[in-house]
Model the fold of this input.
Amino acid sequence: MSGTFLRLAGAAAVAAQAVLAPVPCVAAPAPQRSVSQLLTDLQQLYRQTEQATETYNATAEKLQRQRARVSRLDGQLARARLALQDSRADAGRLARQQYQSSTGLGPYVRLLLARDPQHALDEGHVIGELARERARTVSRLTVTEQQKDALARAARKALDTQLALADRQKKQRDHVRSRLGDVERLLASLTSGQLAAIARLEQQGVARAQQRLTTSGALGDRPASPAGDRAVRYAMAQLGKPYAWGAQGPSAYDCSGLTSRAWEHAGTPIPRTSQEQWQRLTRVPLKQLRPGDLVVYFPEATHVAMYVGHGRVVQAPRPGERVRISPLASYPVLGAVRPDAPAPRAR
Done:
């Protein structure tokens, strides 16, 4: 952890020293904050950043689905327009035929004047069938017109939704960048001694939380399923790759990008974000944990890691860090979910 803080702050600290050259008038120093207060501030900023990242990821997923829907509707609308052209052509052909064969005499008059009434009746049957065909053509034309209009309205609405999602995604991206800037500014304001003290304090807190978890008997360690084993092996192969918000690999990951990609590789696609993983996957008690299960953190479910056994998880922790193995209690645990749990039986 100390290496992380030092890496994040390094470049910013150099720039800060260049800017803070001696000047004739020096402002009064700000009140000194304790190490514990600084750690609290940093943890809060990281949490806000990850929450903003997961919100951005959720919108990105919706935008991707919406783009697919717009494309599908555009295809359906194009086919409906072609069908409408065919229906109009059929209606026009029948209208011309009716005009060309019109005699001005009704069917009953033609029957009375016919020399061969039976022939006239047979001819009337054919004429009746042609009339029914005309009716079907007109009905088909009407239905196709309605379908085309409905698809055109749906396509316009879907495109409007896509544009709204794209605008929301841009605002959320800017919010993530703003949160990251807050983290960087705070780190750049700290000395190397403060950074080291913050890292030690955080490590001590994690060690205590991990000790409480392991001695409470609440943590289990069951064998992995075949799919869980594949997911773990994929996640472990990503060790050392950098955290990047919104990333799903293969060169970088955010927290849920790592877990969703690992389970996709294992043959079990799961939701993209940590919130959706918590909401939609089967929850399991920590006592029943097995490798491949996902551990979700914070009350808002804004962070997720993958259990690998023996009280450890593999995770993409936060900006400035790399995919690594960590104690399960690195953050406040909300609960755990199992991506390959069998679907509940219908009653």
Remarks:
- The radius of gyration is 34 Å.
- The CA atoms of residues 146 and 337 lie 46 Å apart.
- The longest strand covers residues 303-309.
- The longest helix spans residues 117-188.
